[in-house]
Amino acid sequence: MDALAADGKAVKGFKVRLEELRFSFSGMENKMMKMADDGERPEDVSRFVLETVARTVAAATEKAMEKYGKMPVLMSGGVASNSLLRERMDGALFAAPEFSRDNAIGPAILTYRDLR
């Protein structure tokens, strides 16, 4: 998705409302679906989604630092492979993108343990 978004139109993304440190991407998801249904290019839809995620995570991180004090920030998980987020989060620590992607091993192990 990151590679696809690199060829998308630069956009502001969707303004996600932060309540304390909580947020939901449901509004962005609805807008993304409408963009796809309206025939917008996949590159532009991908850029819209990743820009929205980057903007929101960066804003939530900033609010967390205001609330809890400035401290080192370590980004992990699939969201951490977003190059737009990496650009916005100057000073944050990231693993290499290939080690930041989601994989299904964690949920698979938890499901296996739960069903045993």
Can you walk me through this structure?
By secondary structure, the chain is mostly helical. It has a single domain (2-115), classed as ATPase, nucleotide binding domain (Nucleotidyltransferase, domain 5, 2-Layer Sandwich), CATH 3.30.420. It has helices at residues 2-6, 26-37, 42-68, 83-88, 105-115, and strands spanning 74-75, 93-94. It has a two-stranded parallel sheet with strand order 1-2. The longest helix has 27 residues, at 42-68.
Task: Characterize this entry briefly.
With 116 residues, the protein is mainly alpha-helical. The protein has 5 helices and 2 strands.
Could you tell me the mean pLDDT?
A: 90
CATH architecture: 2-Layer Sandwich
Helix/strand/pairing category: mainly alpha
Order of helices and strands: HHHEHEH
What's the N-to-C terminus distance?
35 Å
Integer count of domains: 1
Quaternary structure of the protein: single chain
Question: Which superfamily, in CATH terms, is the homologous superfamily?
Answer: ATPase, nucleotide binding domain
Explain the layout of strands and helices.
Blueprint: H1 2-6, H2 26-37, H3 42-68, E1 74-75, H4 83-88, E2 93-94, H5 105-115
Helix pairs in contact: 2-3
EC number: 2.3.1.234
InterPro entries: ATPase_NBD (IPR043129), Gcp-like_dom (IPR000905)
Pfam family, one: TsaD
Features:
acyltransferase, tRNA N6-adenosine threonylcarbamoyltransferase, single chain, Nucleotidyltransferase, domain 5, 53% helix, globular, two-stranded parallel sheet, Gcp-like_dom, mainly alpha, 116 residues, transferase
